[in-house]
Design brief:
Helix content: 40-55%
CATH superfamily of the largest domain: inorganic pyrophosphatase (n-terminal core)
CATH topology of the largest domain: inorganic pyrophosphatase (n-terminal core)
Structural class: alpha/beta
Number of helices: 14
CATH architecture of the largest domain: Alpha-Beta Complex
Length: 326
């Protein structure tokens, strides 16, 4: 790892135009690791740009109002001499940004920062630590190693600590390590505000989201004596409750995954007119392997995939595979 970080430091020293990218359907860890690195590189007077297929989630604006991600960025015109990917577990997760600019990516220094166990080390310089709770935790350790942690102000410290909290479920998940706790303590010493993000992500509820959750929970399904628990969200339910698929993540994290006797839970919902997303959580089973059979994965106990099967077909297929697993 030290050798890879040293190589990254050399590439950083030679760069002028740096392009940051993270995975599609941004989550907290990928967005705030990118934002924190963006702000630090700006302090170092680099010409920095950030790109994704989509704009930043509106739900994240409570910490940072400016949208630094530019989906319409002309990468060829920006002419990066260094590209840095944050929290993407595969090239597929860079989606159209990569597909439409393959030659630029192939001919530019490209560094991958990630912590997912399923990452195939998809580029030449991969700074990957599967023992890190989050890419934010990994990034902080790298910044310390190359003496850039002195540029972390209270705002940046808050960004990094917030997404350590979300990826560990406030230090509850099994990916929490002594290093995670030490990192969080160091960020608090840098005046990170850890209370307001906790309120926003774990305490605050709005009425429309609560109605969606109620509709899902009252129709919850189970099998194998509650070892398998799952919920379905048809398109009509989003319309009925005036919500979107962006308001589903805490439903599985706060409710389904905490059901008594549950060993695997999943949530199936539409993300557009034809495509479904299925999100899994488990208490120990390797759901990432199940998702890998569909071409998508994440963590061993928290994974997902996309499919264009009907909801009924997807439900049956998943249950058949889970019953073989459990």
């Amino acid at each position: 790892m030290e050798q890879k970080i040293a190589e990254f430091w050399k590439k950083l020293a030679l760069a002028k135009n740096i392009l940051l990218i993270n995975h599609i359907r941004m989550d907290p860890d990928c967005f705030w690791s990118l934002t924190a690195l963006y702000l630090i590189l700006k302090k170092l007077n680099y010409n920095v740009a950030a790109i994704n297929d989509e704009k930043s989630p509106a739900d994240f604006s409570f910490l940072w109002m400016d949208d630094i991600v530019t989906p319409e960025l002309d990468i060829k015109q920006f002419s990066p001499d260094l590209i840095i990917s944050l929290d993407a577990a595969s090239l597929d997760q860079l989606w159209n940004t990569y597909k439409n600019n393959i030659e630029i990516f192939k001919n530019t220094d490209f560094v991958v920062f990630d912590h997912h166990i399923t990452n195939p080390w998809f580029w030449s310089l991969n700074i990957i630590d599967t023992k890190s709770s989050s890419t934010c935790e990994l990034l902080f350790r790298v910044l310390e190693s190359i003496w850039l942690d002195s540029y972390i102000d209270p705002k940046i410290a808050t960004l990094l600590t917030t997404w350590i909290h979300t990826d560990t479920n406030i230090f509850y998940n099994s990916n929490t390590t002594p290093t995670t706790l030490h990192t969080a303590a160091k960020l608090m010493e840098l005046w990170a505000d850890f209370r307001s993000p906790m309120f926003h992500f774990y305490k605050k509820k709005n009425l429309t989201k609560s109605r969606l959750w109620w509709e899902v929970l009252k129709n919850l399904k189970s099998s194998e004596n509650w070892k398998i628990v799952w919920g379905l969200i048809p398109k009509e339910l989003f319309e009925k409750t005036n919500t979107t698929d962006k308001e589903t993540s805490w439903l599985i994290n706060e409710f389904l995954s905490n059901m008594e006797w549950m060993e695997v839970c999943f949530l199936i919902y539409y993300i557009d007119d034809t495509k479904l997303k299925t999100s899994f959580r488990s208490t120990g089973y390797d759901v990432a392997s199940l998702c890998a059979s569909y071409g998508w994965w994440w963590h061993k106990q928290a994974a997902w995939f996309y499919t264009e099967l009907s909801m009924k077909e997807a439900e049956k297929e998943i249950l058949d595979k889970l019953k073989d697993l459990i």
